């Protein structure tokens, strides 16, 4: 949209011409502010449209008081040199000035303000609140971008409040006008800390200016401390603020006189923006008959007038050659009239045959002024757009007269060089036009001639359209905004695809346009896909305008988000299709992209190496900075190469990183980069620069204001000051997908024959130093600057340390060896060194050197205080390590971070070592546990196999365990011994009864009787005279009887002696044949068995042959020998005598351990026994059952053997 011609600047062997930065240049839009006889004129104060009208009277009254007080303080601060003379206040368009809430004493002038305001009154800022603050995008001694302050400061009514606000405004004015920076530190800032070591005393002191005078908003020369780590000292290499101010153009120019003896009271003029007024004047000499030049003028003018100029604007058209003629008077554009069509069709069909050398530019301007005078709105604030080739010679007196007429009528002159022929930069005639545009705060755009035989390429018409639209948007903000623009070359006969984004800052109505050279170049397919995936068949929505070579689709309520499109491209190989998406900015929210360079368009002399070209792009969303956006500049060399093809474009990313050179502050929304002169091909030549910005795939964010609008009477309680190297926002929010594109202009470059590289690396302005008090090592950190300013990779670094700041600044002192090799631009690097200078301040400086020996500028000076090591080495504690680490803070958003050394090790290395050791210990413990579990499992298996072998070797063994324990044959117990447990049993008096103790027979019998005697059994009489028994007090010893008994099984049916435990106590068996007097019912799952007599030929084996078990066997036998038998037979329970028990074997699976027990089982009446035999294991069912044939006397006389095992 903005095309710019270039001015000449010296790069040693390179000459760069930056044609008319115009309103986008470093000081172009500020050129209206000038110092005349000790008074500033042309100061513009703008009031934001977002402020409500009910605050009008309070804001305007406060603004008058503030500007008057500010002029007085400015006079004192500058040593009675300058003050304010006049100020223009631009009111919002939405304010009604004829009501009581906004009454003015003098009539209000409605006009178009030609320049951007230097001071903006708006709502609170997310960080600065309502306090004044300045945006500084350039370095020391360069003017800032603007000053912003909150309207709340103007609503106070007390003089003290206005006095304090004037002091705050003055402190920001010296930064804005004269390019000085803050002289204080900030909390948590890695570059500009709150405290520093005093160079004289060595003690810590606050990092701020200590001065006696309260009138100065900066440190006086006598109070300035160059060693202080402040932003001003870093940017201005330690120079005092007044030294920088006195060398500015305001005070260094001896031609400027000052006859004032007192401070001026500023004259304040209130204006309100009126409708934009535009006159387009096009050259129609014979040169326009070539190719399609004049036809493209007709189509481009029609396009912008019919489709892009907003409603309410006044537009006229003038043609000129040797004379000038108004073909269309200035007329108001209205929506429902044919005025747009009439003005758009007023361009003559053919140009004249008058030679180009006879053209009269002065005539064109005079005719344009007459057309504006005929309009009721007048000329003030109007814009005249001159379309001319720029060739030929224009007399100097004619240019001077044009400048006089434009300034007298307050008219801005925009110049479009169409077509610009050749690859040279700018000739003398173009330089004169550049001077005209600069003097009127205008811009020079350039459209290169790209003809093919008798034809002209469509790119010429698109370039002319973009230039006209950019010039109109400078005056008419509500004109169409170029959202998306892309060129698709022809010759492929294919479907081209693309995408564009629409966000809330755009109005709902959107126009999708396809520009063509010939209508047949556009196929039948034009398809749009909404962000929600809906495909729009646009065949019924397409409109054609052959007078502008465009097919467009108007989307009345376009969905927000990312759109996709498909267009059939049938263009010829030397032409193409151009697709553009335009929309109008929303009234409630605006996302703006502004582009400029560091070159000023006011100086005609050549620049030097100290003034390279820096590209800047400022992205704002409702005046809030857009962070983490993707900003890219495209440099396209105009013309064609030897093969007739276009040159390949060069793309460069712009960054908001705050490295200091070139980007001054991180987080301000200003993205910058040096122009890569050494990397441009095809020199000499002209390069068109286009800057585009988007949401960076959803990463872009904007700050959210957390400051409430409040009525401030005396804002004496200042918030924490901000900001140093970074602007930190407490709250941010993501932005919807957006796209913005700005065509800046053409950069003309021509180089000499020399091949030597004389472009140095950029300055290192983020040098940080830190010291490790445990190892007395000093670490230096910085960001790699590049080879040619911020491009490429430097050759090597040179760094020094010195005992004084002056030595370090002049690269004196001791050189530091072992510096790392320079990395790519933006990479953070560090080096750690040992220094034996204790109890003193040591200063450091560093610079980069390229392969040709060009040295970068001096870095900011870093300093550290190294305490003397103790005479006795004390053990290092954890607290010492942690305390020493507190002095190291990693910078935020400063590229690739590097580790920090502590006690000779890096923090990251220490963490890796600790983590590795911890992990190794955990692995070893896990391995040990796995091995231990494996060995135990293996041991249990071995024991199990050994037990199985013992059992197989003696089939008379029955393994018995506690009745509550079920032995799993595979892995519950691997040996017979493991199934035997010592369970303490309490005797009557509470003492434990252990089977491993040796007890006398009488004592054991006594304890056994206490447990099994009748008083321990509660007898309950029931209605049917049956007796029920409650549980005995347990637990009881579990008795296992082993022996050899006759078996009817064959050898093939080998008995299994390892089975699950049967019940510990015998359940009660009920029946008429075998009544029972025991407390438990016998399990019905066990069949009746008859035990055979004991055979002495078979051996007995005890699982636990202890003395106590033998005594227990004998005493139990004695009990049953003395106990008289009742007349009841216990065939289903146990024999009356121990000796009657026979061995048993079984081959079937035993039933469940406990059979179901019924509470009301009928019992046969019988005599209760006073003694209950000890519980023994129930016998599993046998395959065959033998009848017991043995007499009591015979069995009583046989020797008895029993293995008693208690578990």
Automatic annotation (TrEMBL):
<feature type="compositionally biased region" description="Pro residues">
    <location>
        <begin position="1172"/>
        <end position="1181"/>
    </location>
</feature>
<keyword id="KW-1133">Transmembrane helix</keyword>
<dbReference type="InterPro" id="IPR013642">
    <property type="entry name" value="CLCA_N"/>
</dbReference>
<dbReference type="Pfam" id="PF00092">
    <property type="entry name" value="VWA"/>
</dbReference>
<protein>
    <recommendedName>
        <fullName>VWFA domain-containing protein</fullName>
    </recommendedName>
</protein>
<feature type="region of interest" description="Disordered">
    <location>
        <begin position="1038"/>
        <end position="1083"/>
    </location>
</feature>
<keyword id="KW-0472">Membrane</keyword>
<keyword id="KW-0732">Signal</keyword>
<feature type="transmembrane region" description="Helical">
    <location>
        <begin position="910"/>
        <end position="935"/>
    </location>
</feature>
<dbReference type="GO" id="GO:0032991">
    <property type="term" value="C:protein-containing complex"/>
</dbReference>
<keyword id="KW-0812">Transmembrane</keyword>
<dbReference type="InterPro" id="IPR002035">
    <property type="entry name" value="VWF_A"/>
</dbReference>
<feature type="signal peptide">
    <location>
        <begin position="1"/>
        <end position="25"/>
    </location>
</feature>
<dbReference type="Pfam" id="PF08434">
    <property type="entry name" value="CLCA"/>
</dbReference>
<feature type="compositionally biased region" description="Low complexity">
    <location>
        <begin position="1074"/>
        <end position="1083"/>
    </location>
</feature>
<feature type="domain" description="VWFA">
    <location>
        <begin position="267"/>
        <end position="468"/>
    </location>
</feature>
<feature type="region of interest" description="Disordered">
    <location>
        <begin position="1160"/>
        <end position="1182"/>
    </location>
</feature>
<feature type="compositionally biased region" description="Low complexity">
    <location>
        <begin position="1042"/>
        <end position="1060"/>
    </location>
</feature>
<dbReference type="InterPro" id="IPR036465">
    <property type="entry name" value="vWFA_dom_sf"/>
</dbReference>
């Amino acid at each position: 949209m903005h095309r710019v011609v270039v001015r000449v600047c010296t790069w040693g062997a390179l000459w760069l011409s930056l044609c008319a930065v115009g309103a986008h240049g470093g000081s172009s839009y500020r050129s209206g502010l000038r110092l005349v006889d000790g008074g500033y004129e042309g100061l513009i104060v703008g009031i934001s449209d977002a402020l409500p009208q009910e605050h009008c009277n309070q804001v305007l009254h406060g603004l008058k008081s503030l500007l008057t007080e500010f002029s007085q303080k400015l006079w004192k601060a500058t040593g009675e040199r300058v003050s304010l003379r006049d100020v223009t206040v631009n009111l919002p368009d939405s304010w009604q000035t004829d009501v009581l809430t906004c009454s003015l004493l003098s009539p209000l002038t409605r006009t178009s303000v030609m320049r951007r305001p230097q001071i903006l009154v708006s709502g609170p800022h997310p960080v600065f609140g309502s306090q004044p603050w300045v945006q500084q995008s350039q370095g020391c001694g360069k003017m800032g971008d603007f000053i912003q302050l909150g309207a709340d400061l103007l609503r106070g009514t007390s003089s003290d409040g206005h006095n304090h606000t004037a002091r705050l405004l003055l402190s920001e004015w010296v930064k804005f006008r004269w390019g000085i920076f803050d002289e204080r530190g900030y909390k948590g800032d890695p570059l500009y800390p709150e405290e520093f070591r005093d160079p004289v005393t060595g003690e810590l002191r606050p990092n701020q200016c200590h001065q006696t005078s309260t009138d100065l908003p900066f440190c006086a020369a006598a109070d300035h401390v160059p060693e202080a780590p402040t932003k001003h000292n870093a940017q201005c290499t330690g120079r005092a603020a007044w030294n920088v101010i006195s060398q500015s153009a305001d005070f260094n120019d001896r031609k400027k006189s000052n006859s004032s003896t007192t401070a001026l009271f500023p004259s304040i003029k209130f204006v309100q923006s009126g409708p934009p007024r535009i006159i387009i004047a096009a050259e129609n000499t014979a040169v326009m008959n070539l190719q399609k030049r004049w036809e493209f003028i007709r189509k481009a003018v029609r396009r912008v007038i019919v489709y892009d100029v907003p409603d309410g604007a006044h537009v006229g058209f003038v043609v000129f050659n040797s004379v000038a003629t108004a073909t269309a008077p200035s007329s108001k554009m209205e929506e429902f009239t044919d005025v747009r069509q009439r003005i758009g069709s007023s361009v003559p069909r053919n140009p004249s045959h008058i030679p180009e050398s006879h053209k009269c530019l002065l005539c064109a301007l005079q005719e344009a002024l007459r057309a504006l005078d005929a309009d009721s709105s007048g000329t003030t604030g109007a814009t005249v757009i001159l379309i001319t080739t720029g060739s030929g010679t224009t007399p100097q007196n004619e240019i001077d007269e044009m400048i006089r007429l434009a300034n007298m009528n307050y008219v801005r002159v925009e110049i479009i060089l169409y077509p610009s022929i050749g690859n040279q930069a700018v000739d003398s005639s173009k330089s004169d036009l550049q001077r005209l545009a600069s003097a009127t705060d205008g811009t020079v755009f350039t459209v290169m001639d790209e003809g093919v035989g008798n034809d002209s390429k469509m790119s010429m018409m698109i370039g002319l359209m973009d230039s006209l639209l950019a010039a109109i948007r400078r005056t008419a903000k509500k004109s169409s905004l170029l959202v998306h623009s892309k060129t698709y070359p022809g010759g492929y006969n294919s479907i081209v695809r693309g995408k564009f984004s629409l966000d809330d800052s755009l109005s709902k109505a959107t126009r999708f346009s396809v520009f063509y050279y010939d209508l047949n170049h556009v196929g039948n397919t034009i398809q749009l896909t909404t962000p929600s995936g809906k495909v729009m068949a646009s065949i019924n929505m397409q409109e054609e305008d052959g007078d502008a070579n465009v097919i467009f689709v108007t989307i009345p309520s376009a969905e927000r988000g990312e759109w996709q499109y498909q267009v059939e491209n049938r263009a010829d190989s030397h032409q193409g299709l151009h697709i553009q998406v335009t929309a109008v900015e929303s009234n409630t929210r605006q996302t703006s992209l502004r582009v400029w360079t560091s070159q000023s368009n006011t100086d005609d002399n050549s620049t030097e190496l100290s003034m390279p070209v820096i590209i800047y792009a400022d992205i704002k969303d409702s005046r809030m900075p857009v962070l983490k956006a993707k900003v890219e500049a495209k440099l396209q060399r105009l013309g064609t190469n030897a093969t007739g093809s276009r040159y390949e474009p060069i793309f460069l990313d712009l960054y908001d990183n705050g490295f200091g050179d070139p980007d001054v502050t991180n987080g301000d929304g200003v993205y910058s980069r040096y122009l890569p002169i050494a990397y441009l091909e095809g020199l000499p030549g002209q390069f068109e620069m286009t800057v585009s910005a988007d949401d960076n795939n959803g990463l872009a964010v904007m700050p959210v204001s957390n400051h409430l609008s409040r009525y401030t009477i005396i804002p004496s309680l200042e918030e924490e000051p901000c900001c140093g190297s970074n602007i930190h926002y407490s709250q941010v929010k993501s932005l919807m997908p957006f796209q913005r594109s700005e065509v800046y202009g053409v950069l003309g470059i021509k180089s000499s024959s020399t091949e030597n590289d004389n472009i140095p690396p950029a300055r290192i302005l983020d040098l940080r130093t830190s010291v490790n008090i445990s190892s007395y090592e000093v670490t230096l950190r910085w960001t790699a600057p590049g080879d040619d300013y911020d491009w490429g990779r430097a050759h090597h670094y040179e760094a020094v340390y010195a005992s004084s700041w002056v030595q370090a600044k002049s690269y004196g002192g001791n050189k530091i060896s072992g510096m790392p090799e320079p990395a790519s631009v933006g990479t953070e690097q560090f080096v750690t060194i040992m220094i034996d200078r204790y109890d003193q301040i040591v200063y450091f400086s560093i610079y980069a050197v390229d392969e040709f020996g060009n040295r970068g500028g001096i870095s900011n000076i870093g300093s550290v205080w190294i305490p003397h090591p103790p005479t006795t080495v004390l053990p290092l504690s954890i607290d010492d390590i942690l305390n020493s680490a507190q002095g190291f803070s990693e910078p935020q958003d400063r590229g690739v971070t590097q580790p920090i050394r502590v006690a000779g090790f890096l923090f990251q290395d220490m963490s890796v070592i600790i983590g590795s050791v911890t992990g190794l210990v955990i692995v070893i413990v896990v391995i040990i546990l796995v091995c231990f579990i494996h060995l135990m499992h293996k041991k249990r298996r071995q024991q199990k196999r050994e037990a199985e072998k013992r059992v197989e070797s003696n089939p008379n063994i029955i393994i018995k365990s506690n009745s509550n324990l079920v032995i799993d044959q595979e892995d519950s117990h691997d040996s017979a011994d493991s199934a035997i447990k010592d369970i303490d049993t309490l005797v009557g008096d509470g003492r434990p009864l252990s089977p491993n103790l040796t007890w006398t027979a009488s004592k054991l019998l006594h304890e056994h009787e206490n447990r099994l005697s009748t008083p321990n059994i509660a007898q309950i009489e029931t209605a049917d005279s049956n007796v029920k028994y409650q549980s005995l007090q347990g637990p009881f010893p579990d008795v296992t009887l082993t022996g050899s008994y006759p078996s009817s099984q064959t050898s093939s049916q080998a008995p299994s002696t390892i089975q699950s435990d049967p019940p510990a106590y015998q359940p009660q068996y009920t029946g008429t044949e075998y009544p029972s007097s025991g407390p438990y019912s016998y399990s019905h799952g066990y069949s009746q068995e008859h035990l055979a007599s004991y055979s002495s030929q078979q051996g007995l084996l005890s699982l636990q042959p202890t003395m106590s078990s033998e005594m227990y066997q004998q005493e139990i036998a004695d009990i049953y020998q003395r106990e008289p038998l009742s007349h009841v037979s216990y065939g289903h329970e146990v024999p009356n005598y121990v000796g009657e028990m026979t061995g048993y074997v079984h081959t079937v699976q035993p039933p469940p351990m406990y059979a179901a027990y019924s509470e009301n089982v009928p019992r046969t009446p019988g005599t209760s026994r006073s003694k209950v035999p000890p519980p023994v294991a129930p016998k599993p069912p046998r395959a065959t059952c033998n009848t017991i044939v043995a007499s009591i006397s015979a069995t009583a006389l046989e020797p008895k053997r029993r293995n008693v095992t208690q578990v």
